[in-house]
Amino acid sequence: MLDIKKKKINNRPIGVFDSGVGGLSIFVELKKLLPHENFVFFADQKNVPYGEKSKKELVGFMYKVVDYLKDKHDIKMFVIACNTATCFTIKGLRARYAMPMVGTEPAVKPASQGTKTGTIAIISTPATSKSKTVKKLINDYGNGITVLNIGCKNLENTVEKGNLENPEVNKLLRKYLKEVKNSNTDQLVLGCTHYPFLKIAIEKILGPSVKLVDSGQAIARHTRSLLQTHKILSKGKGTTAYFTTGSAKKFSKVASELLKHKIKANKIKL
Ligand code: DGL
Protein backbone atom coordinates (compact mmCIF):
# COMPACT_ATOMS: atom_id res chain seq x y z
CA MET A 1 0.00 0.00 0.00
CA LEU A 2 2.68 2.41 1.05
CA ASP A 3 4.71 1.65 -2.05
CA ILE A 4 1.82 2.36 -4.39
CA LYS A 5 1.18 5.65 -2.67
CA LYS A 6 4.84 6.59 -2.83
CA LYS A 7 5.06 5.77 -6.53
CA LYS A 8 2.00 7.87 -7.27
CA ILE A 9 3.54 10.85 -5.56
CA ASN A 10 6.84 10.40 -7.39
CA ASN A 11 5.21 10.48 -10.80
CA ARG A 12 3.54 13.84 -10.32
CA PRO A 13 4.91 16.37 -12.82
CA ILE A 14 7.53 19.04 -12.34
CA GLY A 15 6.35 22.50 -13.34
CA VAL A 16 8.85 24.39 -15.48
CA PHE A 17 8.13 28.06 -16.01
CA ASP A 18 9.26 30.93 -18.21
CA SER A 19 7.65 34.07 -19.58
CA GLY A 20 8.12 32.55 -23.02
CA VAL A 21 10.12 30.03 -25.05
CA GLY A 22 13.46 30.88 -23.36
CA GLY A 23 12.86 28.42 -20.54
CA LEU A 24 13.11 25.64 -23.11
CA SER A 25 16.90 26.12 -22.92
CA ILE A 26 16.71 24.94 -19.31
CA PHE A 27 14.05 22.35 -20.07
CA VAL A 28 16.27 20.50 -22.58
CA GLU A 29 18.91 20.03 -19.87
CA LEU A 30 16.29 18.86 -17.35
CA LYS A 31 14.99 16.37 -19.88
CA LYS A 32 18.50 15.02 -20.59
CA LEU A 33 19.30 14.47 -16.93
CA LEU A 34 15.84 13.36 -15.80
CA PRO A 35 14.33 11.33 -18.66
CA HIS A 36 11.77 9.61 -16.40
CA GLU A 37 10.28 12.80 -15.02
CA ASN A 38 6.94 14.08 -16.27
CA PHE A 39 6.98 17.81 -17.01
CA VAL A 40 4.49 20.61 -17.47
CA PHE A 41 6.15 23.48 -19.32
CA PHE A 42 4.32 26.75 -18.80
CA ALA A 43 4.96 29.99 -20.74
CA ASP A 44 3.28 33.22 -19.70
CA GLN A 45 3.45 34.72 -23.18
CA LYS A 46 0.51 37.01 -22.59
CA ASN A 47 2.84 38.97 -20.34
CA VAL A 48 6.21 38.55 -22.07
CA PRO A 49 8.62 40.40 -21.78
CA TYR A 50 9.01 40.01 -18.01
CA GLY A 51 12.23 42.01 -18.31
CA GLU A 52 10.28 45.22 -18.62
CA LYS A 53 7.79 44.65 -15.79
CA SER A 54 7.77 45.89 -12.20
CA LYS A 55 8.34 43.63 -9.21
CA LYS A 56 4.69 44.06 -8.19
CA GLU A 57 3.47 42.93 -11.60
CA LEU A 58 5.85 39.95 -11.66
CA VAL A 59 4.77 38.76 -8.20
CA GLY A 60 1.12 38.94 -9.30
CA PHE A 61 1.81 36.91 -12.47
CA MET A 62 3.79 34.27 -10.61
CA TYR A 63 1.18 33.67 -7.89
CA LYS A 64 -1.39 32.99 -10.61
CA VAL A 65 0.97 30.63 -12.43
CA VAL A 66 1.93 28.58 -9.39
CA ASP A 67 -1.68 28.41 -8.16
CA TYR A 68 -2.69 27.07 -11.57
CA LEU A 69 0.13 24.50 -11.77
CA LYS A 70 -0.52 23.34 -8.22
CA ASP A 71 -4.31 23.13 -8.47
CA LYS A 72 -4.69 21.83 -12.03
CA HIS A 73 -1.51 19.76 -12.51
CA ASP A 74 -0.62 18.83 -8.94
CA ILE A 75 3.05 19.61 -9.54
CA LYS A 76 5.53 18.19 -7.03
CA MET A 77 8.22 20.77 -7.73
CA PHE A 78 8.58 24.15 -9.46
CA VAL A 79 11.52 25.16 -11.63
CA ILE A 80 11.63 28.86 -12.52
CA ALA A 81 13.48 28.76 -15.83
CA CYS A 82 13.51 32.55 -15.91
CA ASN A 83 16.17 34.77 -14.37
CA THR A 84 13.89 37.81 -14.19
CA ALA A 85 11.09 36.01 -12.34
CA THR A 86 13.62 34.38 -10.01
CA CYS A 87 15.32 37.67 -9.12
CA PHE A 88 12.08 39.42 -8.21
CA THR A 89 9.74 36.72 -6.94
CA ILE A 90 11.44 33.59 -5.60
CA LYS A 91 11.59 34.82 -2.01
CA GLY A 92 7.85 35.48 -1.96
CA LEU A 93 7.08 32.19 -3.72
CA ARG A 94 9.15 30.20 -1.24
CA ALA A 95 7.30 31.84 1.64
CA ARG A 96 3.91 31.19 0.07
CA TYR A 97 4.22 27.62 -1.25
CA ALA A 98 5.53 24.56 0.56
CA MET A 99 6.81 22.69 -2.51
CA PRO A 100 10.52 22.47 -3.44
CA MET A 101 11.57 25.21 -5.85
CA VAL A 102 14.54 25.83 -8.08
CA GLY A 103 15.36 29.31 -9.37
CA THR A 104 17.62 30.46 -12.20
CA GLU A 105 20.19 33.17 -11.56
CA PRO A 106 22.94 34.46 -13.87
CA ALA A 107 25.96 32.14 -13.57
CA VAL A 108 28.34 34.81 -12.25
CA LYS A 109 30.13 32.44 -9.87
CA PRO A 110 31.52 29.97 -12.46
CA ALA A 111 32.35 32.82 -14.84
CA SER A 112 34.32 34.68 -12.17
CA GLN A 113 36.10 31.47 -11.20
CA GLY A 114 36.93 30.69 -14.82
CA THR A 115 38.24 34.07 -15.99
CA LYS A 116 41.91 34.32 -16.91
CA THR A 117 41.81 37.91 -18.19
CA GLY A 118 40.06 39.25 -15.08
CA THR A 119 37.09 40.62 -17.03
CA ILE A 120 33.67 39.01 -17.32
CA ALA A 121 30.38 40.32 -18.69
CA ILE A 122 26.75 39.58 -17.88
CA ILE A 123 23.97 40.13 -20.40
CA SER A 124 20.40 39.93 -19.12
CA THR A 125 17.02 41.65 -19.31
CA PRO A 126 16.83 45.31 -18.21
CA ALA A 127 15.03 44.26 -14.99
CA THR A 128 17.53 41.51 -14.11
CA SER A 129 20.52 43.75 -14.76
CA LYS A 130 19.17 46.30 -12.26
CA SER A 131 18.07 43.72 -9.67
CA LYS A 132 19.41 43.34 -6.15
CA THR A 133 20.18 39.71 -7.01
CA VAL A 134 22.66 40.67 -9.72
CA LYS A 135 24.18 43.41 -7.56
CA LYS A 136 24.69 40.81 -4.83
CA LEU A 137 26.19 38.28 -7.25
CA ILE A 138 28.67 40.91 -8.48
CA ASN A 139 29.44 41.87 -4.91
CA ASP A 140 29.97 38.24 -3.85
CA TYR A 141 31.96 36.99 -6.84
CA GLY A 142 33.29 40.10 -8.59
CA ASN A 143 36.03 40.89 -6.13
CA GLY A 144 39.25 41.88 -7.86
CA ILE A 145 37.82 41.44 -11.35
CA THR A 146 35.97 43.73 -13.76
CA VAL A 147 32.32 42.85 -14.34
CA LEU A 148 30.38 44.43 -17.21
CA ASN A 149 26.65 44.36 -16.44
CA ILE A 150 24.60 44.92 -19.60
CA GLY A 151 20.80 45.11 -19.73
CA CYS A 152 19.49 44.15 -23.17
CA LYS A 153 16.07 45.59 -23.97
CA ASN A 154 14.15 43.62 -26.59
CA LEU A 155 16.67 40.83 -27.11
CA GLU A 156 14.40 38.12 -25.67
CA ASN A 157 11.64 39.31 -28.01
CA THR A 158 13.71 38.38 -31.04
CA VAL A 159 13.89 34.79 -29.76
CA GLU A 160 10.14 34.83 -29.09
CA LYS A 161 9.64 35.55 -32.80
CA GLY A 162 11.59 32.42 -33.60
CA ASN A 163 13.50 33.52 -36.65
CA LEU A 164 17.05 33.54 -35.31
CA GLU A 165 18.48 34.37 -38.73
CA ASN A 166 16.60 37.66 -38.68
CA PRO A 167 18.94 40.68 -39.28
CA GLU A 168 17.28 42.37 -36.28
CA VAL A 169 18.90 39.77 -34.00
CA ASN A 170 22.35 40.53 -35.30
CA LYS A 171 21.80 44.29 -35.09
CA LEU A 172 20.72 44.12 -31.46
CA LEU A 173 23.51 41.72 -30.51
CA ARG A 174 26.14 43.96 -32.10
CA LYS A 175 24.79 46.91 -30.12
CA TYR A 176 24.75 45.11 -26.76
CA LEU A 177 28.03 43.25 -27.27
CA LYS A 178 30.02 46.28 -28.43
CA GLU A 179 31.36 46.98 -24.95
CA VAL A 180 32.19 43.29 -24.48
CA LYS A 181 34.02 43.13 -27.79
CA ASN A 182 36.05 46.22 -26.92
CA SER A 183 37.12 44.76 -23.57
CA ASN A 184 39.24 41.76 -22.69
CA THR A 185 36.22 39.78 -21.47
CA ASP A 186 36.81 36.03 -21.65
CA GLN A 187 33.57 34.83 -20.00
CA LEU A 188 30.11 36.01 -21.02
CA VAL A 189 27.26 35.09 -18.68
CA LEU A 190 23.98 34.50 -20.50
CA GLY A 191 21.70 35.88 -17.79
CA CYS A 192 18.41 35.32 -19.58
CA THR A 193 17.17 31.87 -20.54
CA HIS A 194 16.27 33.08 -24.03
CA TYR A 195 19.91 33.84 -24.85
CA PRO A 196 21.35 30.28 -25.16
CA PHE A 197 19.32 30.08 -28.38
CA LEU A 198 21.47 32.96 -29.67
CA LYS A 199 24.79 31.21 -28.94
CA ILE A 200 25.78 30.76 -32.58
CA ALA A 201 25.02 34.42 -33.40
CA ILE A 202 26.92 35.59 -30.29
CA GLU A 203 29.93 33.39 -31.10
CA LYS A 204 30.02 34.86 -34.61
CA ILE A 205 30.40 38.34 -33.09
CA LEU A 206 32.75 37.60 -30.20
CA GLY A 207 34.81 34.77 -31.61
CA PRO A 208 36.06 31.65 -29.82
CA SER A 209 38.09 33.41 -27.11
CA VAL A 210 34.95 34.31 -25.14
CA LYS A 211 33.34 31.44 -23.27
CA LEU A 212 29.55 31.58 -23.08
CA VAL A 213 28.29 30.55 -19.64
CA ASP A 214 24.66 29.59 -19.08
CA SER A 215 22.82 28.02 -16.18
CA GLY A 216 21.05 25.06 -17.86
CA GLN A 217 23.16 22.13 -16.69
CA ALA A 218 23.59 23.49 -13.17
CA ILE A 219 19.82 23.94 -12.84
CA ALA A 220 19.24 20.37 -14.03
CA ARG A 221 21.76 18.99 -11.52
CA HIS A 222 20.26 21.04 -8.70
CA THR A 223 16.76 19.84 -9.62
CA ARG A 224 17.92 16.20 -9.59
CA SER A 225 19.59 16.65 -6.23
CA LEU A 226 16.43 18.20 -4.71
CA LEU A 227 14.32 15.34 -6.09
CA GLN A 228 16.74 12.90 -4.47
CA THR A 229 16.74 14.75 -1.15
CA HIS A 230 12.94 14.84 -1.04
CA LYS A 231 12.78 11.23 -2.31
CA ILE A 232 10.40 12.21 -5.10
CA LEU A 233 12.27 10.98 -8.19
CA SER A 234 9.92 9.65 -10.84
CA LYS A 235 9.86 6.28 -12.55
CA GLY A 236 7.36 7.64 -15.05
CA LYS A 237 7.25 7.70 -18.83
CA GLY A 238 8.87 11.08 -19.18
CA THR A 239 5.92 12.93 -20.67
CA THR A 240 5.74 16.69 -21.30
CA ALA A 241 2.70 18.91 -21.71
CA TYR A 242 3.12 22.50 -22.93
CA PHE A 243 0.88 25.41 -21.98
CA THR A 244 0.95 29.09 -22.89
CA THR A 245 -1.16 32.09 -21.96
CA GLY A 246 -0.40 33.44 -25.44
CA SER A 247 -1.02 31.89 -28.83
CA ALA A 248 -0.73 28.08 -28.79
CA LYS A 249 -0.04 28.10 -32.52
CA LYS A 250 2.83 30.56 -32.20
CA PHE A 251 4.36 28.74 -29.21
CA SER A 252 4.14 25.40 -31.00
CA LYS A 253 5.78 26.80 -34.14
CA VAL A 254 8.67 28.56 -32.39
CA ALA A 255 9.26 25.82 -29.80
CA SER A 256 9.32 23.17 -32.55
CA GLU A 257 11.95 25.21 -34.40
CA LEU A 258 14.08 25.75 -31.30
CA LEU A 259 13.94 22.14 -30.06
CA LYS A 260 13.99 20.66 -33.56
CA HIS A 261 11.08 18.33 -32.97
CA LYS A 262 7.32 18.75 -33.15
CA ILE A 263 5.69 20.37 -30.14
CA LYS A 264 2.02 21.05 -29.62
CA ALA A 265 1.00 23.52 -26.94
CA ASN A 266 -2.35 24.29 -25.35
CA LYS A 267 -3.62 27.78 -24.65
CA ILE A 268 -4.61 28.51 -21.10
CA LYS A 269 -6.36 31.54 -19.61
CA LEU A 270 -5.33 32.41 -16.06
N1 DGL B 1 13.69 34.30 -20.10
C1 DGL B 1 13.55 35.27 -19.09
C2 DGL B 1 14.79 35.41 -18.22
O1 DGL B 1 15.55 34.48 -18.10
C3 DGL B 1 13.02 36.63 -19.37
C4 DGL B 1 12.52 37.05 -20.68
C5 DGL B 1 11.52 38.17 -20.57
O2 DGL B 1 11.93 39.34 -20.52
O3 DGL B 1 10.35 37.88 -20.48
O4 DGL B 1 15.00 36.42 -17.61
From TrEMBL:
UniProt KW keywords: Cell shape, Cell wall biogenesis/degradation, Isomerase, Peptidoglycan synthesis
GO biological process annotation, one example: regulation of cell shape
Active site positions: 82 (proton donor/acceptor), 192 (proton donor/acceptor)
EC numbers on record: 5.1.1.3
NCBIfam families: glut_race
Function: Provides the (R)-glutamate required for cell wall biosynthesis.
Stated name of the protein: Glutamate racemase
Species per Swiss-Prot/TrEMBL record: Candidatus Nomurabacteria bacterium RIFCSPHIGHO2_01_FULL_40_24b
